[in-house]
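FW: tagging you since you asked about this chain on Friday. Here's the raw sequence from the shared folder, copied in full. Didn't touch anything.
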Amino acid sequence: MTKAEIITRIYEKVGFAKKDATDVVEATFDIIKGCLERGEKVKVSGFGNFVVNTKRPRKGRNPQTGDEIIIVGRKVLTFKASQILKKSLNNASPSSSTMSSPSSAAD
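HL: got it, structure written out here
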């Protein structure tokens, strides 16, 4: 789903003008981005948590030459889904499961 699709769905569901829906989505993303840039955790109840973690510098190897290099430290964004979202995803639709049923295994 793209940002444009989110805006369209808000426009259709809530009834805001498209410009207002765009402003709401943009403002929401700007607030979340600002919090994450400051290193704050963003918790969305019933959805999940966005957290910025810091990776330390580490040694690595250039796969082509075998030379040892230092991989610089960096910040990475992680998302952990809430239990509510996990349950919702797992109960969403049985047809989305990739596991075969016992009856199809006998075919």
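FW: The domain at 1-39 is CATH 4.10.520.10 (HU Protein; Chain A).
HL: agreed, and The helical segments are 3-14, 18-37, 83-90, 102-105.
FW: great, closing this out.
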